[in-house]
UniProtKB/TrEMBL annotation, chain A:
This is Autophagy protein 5. Signal peptide: none annotated. It comes from the Eukaryota. Residues 186-265 form the Autophagy protein ATG5 UblB domain. It is found in: Cytoplasm; Preautophagosomal structure membrane. May play an important role in the apoptotic process, possibly within the modified cytoskeleton. Its expression is a relatively late event in the apoptotic process, occurring downstream of caspase activity. Plays a crucial role in IFN-gamma-induced autophagic cell death by interacting with FADD. Involved in autophagic vesicle formation. Its main location: cytoplasm.
TrEMBL record, chain B:
PANTHER family: AUTOPHAGY PROTEIN 12, UBIQUITIN-LIKE PROTEIN ATG12. InterPro entries: Atg12 (IPR007242), Ubiquitin-like_domsf (IPR029071). It comes from Dinothrombium tinctorium. Gene3D superfamilies: Phosphatidylinositol 3-kinase Catalytic Subunit, Chain A, domain 1. This is Ubiquitin-like protein ATG12. The keyword ATP-binding does not apply.
Length: 272, 107
């Protein structure tokens, strides 16, 4: 893994440009707020990185809403899920749109049917840690994560929250290690399509033939009906189109999000 | 591998009118009432959240009371996880086992 340290860093440091505006209906002052521009980490979560945005806009809404308990964000009317990493939301929605990404902040009318409330950090922390545990259940039958101390678990969360690469990876390394003759039992991945819930299935890093499983094998698993025609779907992670021959074990170790899952967006290729 | 094949066979067998239903076992852990009926056939397209809501209604718990749902005695799946995903990844002998608890039980 050491030789790919550079890849881990690039994944960690990737940022996306976002322009936040306040929902025009909620502006209660004569003065119009300026938009707020930020470069946000792909690997993080919206509630962890928009404190300044909330503070900026809270001066323009009526007093009782300021606490932000009903806070949510949309892109062209579509509410964004808090618990998806920012990079996943970006890859799903900004396919070929212009940058920066224009998002709208709301302090009221929370879309109860579409979103889960995520208005405190403890909730995001437990969701994040649960996802790491789920990933380790797939990779190592939970043996690595269960052998860790509470302190290690905290370090994973603090590393992400404070954007500290070394702090995070000194622990995460143990979750991502494998010996040559023993790869992960299964590869933790989720495939996202616009306006649908994500797909998660079992896939091993090695085929029955003994060869390494690749992105193409994953495509065939998720889209079995287009087996002869895998070219009709494109898989994207961290904004990068995945080559069909990339081995899943390598991807899992090097391009997983901090929650230890490969979050992959699937797009139908246009026929043109 | 044998387990995975068995899971597939069961998922197919229970498919009627395009709705795939899977075997789910709901087990209590910690200080929480036990459900009389433990085995359920659940629409694979349902979410974890809908299972939590169902258990709360069945046990007549307050809707605002927390209820934790665990898979593999190790993690709480995200509320928007589909049962199909969890069944495909974590079912044992063709059955997905959830543990429910009023307090955090594992991890």
């Amino acid at each position: 893994m050491a030789e790919d340290q550079q890849v881990l860093r690039m994944v960690w440091e990737a940022r996306v440009p976002i322009c936040f505006s306040l929902s025009p209906r909620e502006i209660s002052t004569m003065h119009q707020p300026d938009p707020y521009y930020l470069m946000l980490p792909r690997i993080s979560y919206l509630p962890l990185v928009i404190d300044k945005v909330i503070k900026h806009f809270s001066n323009f809404v009526t007093e009782y809403k300021k606490q932000g308990t009903d806070l949510w964000i949309d892109f062209e009317g579509k509410p964004l899920k808090w618990h998806y990493p920012i990079g996943v939301l970006w890859d799903l929605f900004t396919n070929e749109t212009t940058i920066p990404w224009n998002l709208t902040l709301h302090f009221e009318n929370f879309p109860e049917d579409e979103l889960i409330r995520f208005n405190n950090r403890a909730l995001i922390e437990s969701m994040f840690m649960s996802t790491i545990k789920e990933a380790d259940a797939l990779k190592h039958r939970s043996q690595v994560i269960n052998a860790m101390l509470e302190r290690d678990h905290n370090q994973l969360w603090m590393g992400l929250q404070n954007d500290k690469f070394d702090q995070f990876w000194s622990v995460n390394r143990k979750l991502m290690e494998h010996t040559n003759d023993e790869l992960f039992r299964h590869i933790p991945f989720r495939v996202y399509e616009q306006n649908k819930s994500f797909i998660q299935r079992l896939i091993k890093p090695v085929l029955e033939s003994g060869e390494l499983a690749t992105v193409k094998d994953l495509m065939n698993l998720i889209y079995p009906y287009s087996q002869d025609d895998t070219q009709s779907v494109t898989f994207v992670i961290h904004g990068i189109k995945l080559p069909l021959d990339a081995p899943l074990q390598w991807l899992s170790e090097n391009m997983s999000y901090p929650d230890n899952f490969l979050h992959i967006c699937a797009f139908a290729k246009s026929n043109s | 591998m044998a387990t995975e094949a068995a899971n597939d066979a069961i998922a197919e067998r229970n498919e009627t009118d395009g709705v795939v239903k899977v075997d789910v076992l709901l087990k209590a852990t910690g200080d929480v009432p036990i459900m009389k009926k433990k085995k359920w056939l659940i629409d694979a397209n349902k979410t974890v959240l809908s299972v939590i809501t169902f258990i709360k209604q069945y046990l007549k718990l307050d809707a605002n009371e927390p209820l934790f749902l665990y898979v593999s005695q190790s993690f709480c799946p995200s509320p928007d996880h589909r049962i199909r995903n969890l069944y495909d990844c974590f079912a044992v002998d063709g059955r997905l086992i959830f543990y429910y608890s009023k307090t955090p039980a594992w991890g």
